[in-house]
Design a protein that fits this description.
Blueprint lengths: L1 H19 L18 H4 L3 H14 L17 H10 L4 E3 L8 H4 L13 H21 L8 H26 L4 E2 L4 E2 L25 H21 L15 H15 L2 H14 L7 H4 L11 E5 L4 H4 L5 H5 L5 H5 L2 E3 L1 H4 L12 E2 L8 E2 L14 E5 H14 L3 H12 L27 H12 L6 H8 L13 H9 L18 H6 L11
Antiparallel strand pairs: 1-5, 2-3, 4-8, 6-7
Helix pairs in contact: 3-6, 3-7, 6-7, 7-8, 8-9, 9-10, 9-16, 10-16, 16-17, 16-18
Length: 524
């Protein structure tokens, strides 16, 4: 009873804070790509416009600007990925701990759409801010001075950022557009408003577009990003910077979009370009067992280099939540792997060492992530690794009927992990209705290895939704009784792939400020 009363007081205080800061949504469409300087002046030359791009990237790992509270769980891309992990099936929080990510884990966030301190506001505000900033950069393409390579590189990243932001919004605020299990689509489902021009606080809000229009915008932007970044490969502005979206990262993002929309050929082609042309190598033991904290590793495509303690975010950071040895929040709420997934990992697979099933206090606790420097709170954030491209290409090849290519890709990526792995031992594409309804098919094994590889870093719910499967949680797999009780009390049913439990409600501030989105347009 005391815990429940404490939670209630916390929520009340946050809601009061939200009412005080409700006017902050007026900043939503402002353009402020850097901490100082005139946006228009910066965009006159590619050599200065790159600082506008850098400002957007900096905000993708900075905490404290997207909400009026709960900032220790709101630190950009890595926080969104972690939230999508704890909402799914493979990453388990042993307990509530300090509370961060717990309410995502037990599905107690959605109803707080009127607060500016919770996940819905965080995701909506951040992504529309990135879109607004990207729109101004895109609009400056024709007038921007500099070499063709430099201008293409700057503007290409803006297109990729805009596409990524719309993909994020569609993921959080709408159901997946295609269900390959049933061969059904939801292209007429309501998506999110689409803005392609510079905006300000005077801009009238737009209505929700259906998913066909939203994903058409995403696809066009991603194709344009690939086109421009290809032209921009000779730029001096890149400087081998993995914190930027390169040509190959844009192709990686494109492959994600294609998987969501059921475009297997597009997913395969984009991922294979990364594999065949990109300067990356599949990680082995040193890369896999080093704490997942260094973007300079040859298998890392994109991430955020956290160079000093001022950039680390301290408690508001990924490793505080995921380093179960030195992370304060992780120690309070250890992150575990589902017993069922763990038991499907071969004993010969080095990745099985990422978890300790025999830990006395936290069985199946993760050791995958660690600070690179605990005293300075350091550790780079990794957003994309080349291994993802192998699993994507293999899945897409198999779904397209090319079993040989799928087998070759799987054998290549698995060789440094499990030398005894042989893809030819698997056949077929059958998947179960839930992610723990095992069929033994080749497609299931590809997805299984992907789940193991990307555990804790990718945003597992993104895959669950696009696959058309449901999730069946149980205490036998390691989910806490508190988690199961809370979900039952809230009538959460995530075994149903058509559920709206995975979908956030549009923030009330948006409904209040936008005359073209009303309560009847709200998600269920």
């Amino acid at each position: 009873m005391g815990v429940i009363m404490k939670k209630t007081k916390i929520f009340v205080s946050l809601l009061l804070a939200a009412s005080v800061f409700s006017a902050c949504n007026q900043k939503l469409l402002d353009f402020s790509p850097t901490d100082s300087g005139s946006g228009e002046e910066l965009l006159k030359e590619a050599s200065t416009a790159i600082s506008s791009v850098n400002g957007i990237y900096r905000s993708m790992w900075s905490a404290g600007w997207t909400t009026t509270g709960n900032t220790h769980q709101c630190f950009g891309i890595s926080a969104y990925n972690l939230a999508l992990e704890v909402m799914a099936d493979d990453l388990i929080m042993q307990g509530q701990g300090n509370g961060w990510f717990w309410f995502d884990h037990v599905y107690s966030v959605k109803s707080y759409y009127s607060s500016s301190a919770f996940r819905g506001y965080d995701v909506w505000y951040a992504n529309y801010k990135w879109i607004a900033d990207a729109n101004y950069i895109i609009a400056a393409e024709e007038s921007m001075g500099g070499s063709t390579a430099d201008v293409s590189y700057v503007v290409g990243q803006a297109y990729a950022i805009r596409a990524l932001a719309y993909l994020n919004l569609a993921t959080w605020f709408a159901r997946a557009p295609y269900n390959p299990l049933g061969g059904t689509s939801r292209w007429n489902d309501p998506g999110v408003p689409v803005y392609t021009e510079g905006t300000s606080i005077k801009t009238e809000g737009k209505p929700r577009e259906n998913l066909s229009i939203v994903y058409e915008r995403i696809s066009k932007d991603m194709d344009r990003a690939v086109e421009l970044l290809e032209k921009g490969q000779g730029t001096s502005l890149a400087d081998n910077n993995k914190s930027h979206i390169s040509l190959y990262v844009a192709l990686g993002l494109k492959s994600r979009v294609c998987l969501v929309t059921g475009d297997w050929e597009g997913a395969y082609d984009a991922a294979m370009r990364v594999i065949e042309e990109g300067p990356y190598a599949v990680g082995g033991q040193s890369e896999l067992m080093g704490g997942m904290n260094d973007i300079n590793n040859a298998n890392v495509m994109w991430g955020a280099g956290i160079a000093n303690s001022e950039q680390s975010g301290a408690y508001a950071s990924f490793f505080t939540h995921m380093d179960n040895v030195s992370g304060s929040y992780a120690q309070a709420a250890p992150k575990l792997i589902s017993k069922q997934l763990y038991n499907h990992i071969s004993d010969n697979d080095i990745r099985k060492r990422w978890w300790n099933p025999n830990d006395r206090e936290s069985p199946y606790v993760s050791t995958k992530f660690s600070f690179s420097n605990v005293a300075a709170w350091l550790g780079d954030y990794i957003y994309m690794r080349v291994e993802e491209m192998y699993f994507t290409a293999a899945e897409a090849a198999l779904r397209s009927g090319d079993e040989d290519s799928a087998s070759n890709l799987m054998n290549t990526v698995m060789a440094p992990r499990n030398p005894g792995y042989n893809a030819s031992a698997y056949r077929g594409t059958m998947l179960g209705a839930t992610t723990t309804t095992w069929t033994g098919s080749f497609l299931e094994n590809i997805l299984l290895q992907r789940r193991v590889e990307l555990w804790g870093e990718y945003g597992r719910l993104f895959d669950v939704r696009r696959l058309g499967q449901g999730i069946s949680r149980s205490t036998e797999d390691g989910f806490s009784s508190d988690c199961m009780t809370t979900m039952s009390r809230n009538r959460i049913n995530i075994t149903n792939p058509d559920t709206y439990d995975w979908i956030l409600m549009i923030p009330k501030d948006e409904l209040d400020a936008n005359p073209n989105i009303n309560e009847e347009d709200q998600n269920p």
